[in-house]
Amino acid sequence: MTENLVIIGSGPAGYTAAIYAGRAQLNPIVFEGFSAGGIPGGQLMTTTEVENFPGFAEGVQGPELMKQMRQQALRWGAQCITDDVIAVDFSQRPFVITTDEQSIKTHAVIICTGATAKRLHLPGEELFWNNGISACAICDGANPLFDNAEVAVVGGGDSAAEEALYLTKYAQKVHVLVRSDRLRASKTMQNRLLSHDRIQIHWNCEPVRVYGDQVLRKLEIQDIQSKDLTELFVSGLFYAIGHIPNTELFQGQLTLDPLGYIHTEGKSTATNIPGIWAAGDVQDHHYRQAITAAGTGCMASIEAERWLAENALLIESATMNLSLV
Ligand code: NDP
Predict the structure, then answer these.
(1) How many CA atoms lie less than 13 Å away from 243 in the CB half-sphere?
(2) Is 139 a catalytic residue?
(3) 197 among known catalytic residues
């Protein structure tokens, strides 16, 4: 048997693709992944309050938002399987998707495997993750913890510059910790960063330890050359040291960009192989928001439905399971 559509990944992109594909009667199969402790839902499962997802005027907890998206996908007949895809074969049609448990054939695939924010895993970091330490200022910067406080951003690229500038909306002072004597960010961003009177750059240094009680209170940083230690009394620590797109499975089979993200064509979510689309952070290092991931998940699903129909590959099912699970 060959499936219409397999969706790999269970963040906002994956579930949105599943909702649209379910409603289009494609009977999608979603491999939700198991490696995050068997907890599907992607990066939002490790955040707390999401305040910028439209439709939730009072905000919504990340895990609750993902639970609702999953329920909605199930309601429209998506089959969600909590399993990791361990191999794909895009060299033959139908494509073959393999997990530890099974191999299935499918005419179409939407890849929504996301990206993972790099962290430093400092001593004490786990205690304050989402309670002062974060990898997304746009998601977490408005937390009252940072109101008029001092915060630190690690990194010297465009993300670090963008996060530091964004955090000046809330924090009284932003320390940017750069591990070398130069910024990797674009000239424009560098100028904005260097000319801001509430941003202080600390060159040639790295954070080595975090301290606090219920919340983050202090950060110890070390001069890379002299090894001298300095304390910064900050309520927030934001990592902006890059993301790793989760594309290992697809290397050598799909065209990736120089940063390792899946290359998609123009305004579409099409990859270089017809019948395979990519949505969400796995193909977007620019916006990286739940809402943009959901938007591209929707696009991918519509494109998949049209492609299946145009190529007479659609397997219609009269026995769709529309019961709420
Ligand atoms: P980058 O790889 O460009 O920068 C990462 C930064 O983190 C570098 O300064 C790097 O230092 C530093 N870093 C990496 N590892 C460590 C570590 N272990 N400890 C301390 N510092 C570390 O990543 P970005 O996320 O900033 O950007 C990714 C891409 O997205 C870029 O192409 C960027 O231009 C683009 N982007 C564009 C934006 C825009 O146009 N508005 C906004 C955000 C991103 P070092 O330089 O020493 O390696």
Answers:
(1) 24
(2) yes
(3) no
Cα(233) to centroid of ligand 1, in Å?
24
Residue spans in the chain of domains classed CATH 3.50.50.60: 2-116+243-310, 119-239
Atom of ligand 1 nearest to the CA of 241: 7
Model confidence at 230: pLDDT above 70: yes
Q: For residue 209, give Cα distances in angstroms to 61, 102, 175, 229.
A: 28, 44, 16, 10
CATH class, range 119-239:
alpha beta
pLDDT digits (tens, 9 = 90+) for 131-157: 899 998 888 888 999 999 999 999 999
Per-residue pLDDT reduced to its tens digit, 76-120: 999 999 999 999 999 999 999 999 899 999 999 999 999 988 999
- Angle (deg, nearest 10), helices 62-75 and 12-23: 20
Tell which CATH architecture fits domain 2-116+243-310. 3-Layer(bba) Sandwich (3.50)
- Protein residue whose Cα sits closest to atom 37 of ligand 1: 158
**Does position 74 have pLDDT exceeding 70, yes or no?**
yes
Q: Give the per-residue pLDDT at 34.
A: 76
Report CA(259)–ligand 1 centroid distance (Å). Answer: 11
